[in-house]
Amino acid sequence: MTNKPLNDTVHRVTQRVIANSCDGRTRYLELMERERERTPERSQLSCSNLAHAYAGAQEDQAAMSAHLGPNLAIVTAYNDMLSAHQPYGRYPDRMKIWAREVGATAQVAGGTPAMCDGVTQGHDGMELSLFSRDAIALAAAIALSHQMYDGMAMLGICDKIVPGLVIGALRFGHLPAIFVPSGPMPSGIPNKQKQAVRQLYAEGKASRAQLLESEIASYHSPGTCTFYGTANSNQMMMEMMGLHVPGAAFVPPGVSLRQELTRAAVHRLVAMRPDGEDYRPMAQVVDEKAIVNAAIGLLATGGSTNHAIHIPAMARAAGIAFDWNDLAELSSAVPLVARVYPNGPGDVNQFHAAGGMGYVIGTLLDEGLAHGDILTVWDGGFEAYSREPKIEGEQLSWHAPGEAGDDTMLRPASAPFQSDGGMRLLTGNLGRACFKSSAVEPERYTIEAPCRIFSEQHEVSAAFERGELDRDVVVVMRFQGPRANGMPELHKLTPPLGVLQDRGYRVALVTDGRMSGASGKVPAAIHCTPEAFGGGPLAYLRDGDVVRVCAATGELSTTADLESRDPAPNPAPAAGVGRELFAMFRHHADSAELGGSAILAEAGL
């Protein structure tokens, strides 16, 4: 089948991104070229430098000392508290063996933090979550700063971890890089059953013991959580940007196919080394078209709203300007071809079994809805990502996925679930915000009601339990932005607001905080910018003001006269759980639309 020409809207947005990025991209590529020329060959380093680097290399020490081949950096976000990252514990030893197979060596260059938002959800530690991305980028940069490496293997999966690794690695973009996932855990109890128990608990109809039993039945073994949240959206984006071995995203841990894909990643990274015949620096792989492809994949699959923050941040690290106008315009043209829980009935394992990323990329290319001419880490180009990997005999091979195995989860771009990508930009006198329409029934696209103002999540739960929210209401959760408290996710609000909606009330959430890929069925205007801290529009609202949230018209507004009021005072800085150590990040953070980053803002990127 011949692919259709590139969609006009995709072409127009891409050209605008290229034009808006001209100066920044030029400076970035010039820096990467200087870094390539400046980085010394290991043989030129002093004997003392080399001795320190080789001292722990054990059986690789002789080969490294004789400069017999390339040396790969392994940057790992391993810990065994985070289920998705637990499998990484054994990866380095295996990767070193696979490097030796092709005349190379590998070293663990360094580790990065890896926090689990599922553990900190609704608690103070969640206020460190977004800025952990900056800390991860800094840790990756420290790991790679020794200038001992010819390629980067980046081991990370979850929410802020992959974007942080991308940002850090891009500052060493003169080197090739491959991102190495470990795959999702086996499916647990049905997602509707899990959600029902959560709502019963919120209503006081299920005990804590029943809730814990349900949650453990859902999150039960090593691997990524199986709902289509930020972690799994990360893996989708690495495929869409050509930074994975094709089809690696959702192969589960512990199977031979997963091992062979990781082995192929090591071999491929060696083939892309700077002194080889197929040098592919990360700086060239992550270009404007790759960033647009990431956004297209996000929209086509109904992925995490967190990436409305992460895509602009990753783009900035490569000298590229991408904003919510670009995302919203792409959403108008990119159809929704996948429904994965919480936007559909099945989880990522079922999505993968039905055709997964191979099917998604194939149908997008068929309809001219993705850039097929991007440079990828794989020598088959981006079209290779439209096939799924298998082991035949002892050989790794790729095959077209064919028709979708489940049309309740996957549909062709020519006959999608809906004609747009389900991510709407809302604007008005309350600022700019994102609305994930793919998760919301169309009859709830417009909510207009008196608002109730909160600044703490527990206040919402308390008001719900007292019956004070049993009405049509727009819940405004403010002072949750990057500069106020680090922009935590607010998933604890979903069960009570879902109960109110099920009772027949017209309910919406407006917040300068985050909801992420687990955003549910309740209409939500999230990531509001300017944030309330420092005098953004939400700071001027009062209880009872009528607020309108409308995904149909793209409106976020109030009838109240905001200009006649003084803003609510900024909250005092929080302390405890290490939050005081992140004061610098809060102070220097920029807006959610720019990525909510302190390090990128201060670096002038």
UniProtKB/TrEMBL annotation:
User: What HAMAP family does the annotation carry?
Assistant: Edd
Family matches, as InterPro entries: 6-phosphgluc_deHydtase (IPR004786), Dihydro-acid_dehy_C (IPR042096), DiOHA_6PGluconate_deHydtase_CS (IPR020558), ILV_EDD_C (IPR056740), ILV_EDD_N (IPR000581), IlvD/EDD_N (IPR037237)
Which protein family is it in?
A: Belongs to the IlvD/Edd family.
Q: Under which name does UniProt file this protein?
A: Phosphogluconate dehydratase
Annotated Gene Ontology cellular components are: cytosol
Q: Which domain of life is it from?
A: Bacteria
Q: Which reaction does this chain catalyze?
A: 6-phospho-D-gluconate = 2-dehydro-3-deoxy-6-phospho-D-gluconate + H2O
Which UniProt keywords are listed? 4Fe-4S, Carbohydrate metabolism, Gluconate utilization, Iron, Iron-sulfur, Lyase, Metal-binding
* Residues involved in [4Fe-4S] cluster binding: C158, C225
Which SUPFAM superfamilies does this chain map to? IlvD/EDD N-terminal domain-like (SSF143975), LeuD/IlvD-like (SSF52016)
Cofactor annotation remark: Binds 1 [4Fe-4S] cluster.
EC no.?
Answer: 4.2.1.12
Q: Where is the Dihydroxy-acid/6-phosphogluconate dehydratase C-terminal domain?
A: 409-595
- Give the EC class as a word: lyase
Q: What does this protein do?
A: Catalyzes the dehydration of 6-phospho-D-gluconate to 2-dehydro-3-deoxy-6-phospho-D-gluconate.
Cofactor section: [4Fe-4S] cluster
Q: In which pathway does it act?
A: Carbohydrate metabolism; Entner-Doudoroff pathway
Instruction: Quote the PANTHER family the UniProt record gives.
Output: D-XYLONATE DEHYDRATASE, PHOSPHOGLUCONATE DEHYDRATASE
GO biological process, any: Entner-Doudoroff pathway through 6-phosphogluconate
Q: Which GO terms describe its molecular function?
A: 4 iron, 4 sulfur cluster binding; metal ion binding; phosphogluconate dehydratase activity
- Domain (Dihydroxy-acid/6-phosphogluconate dehydratase N-terminal): give its ranges: 70-379
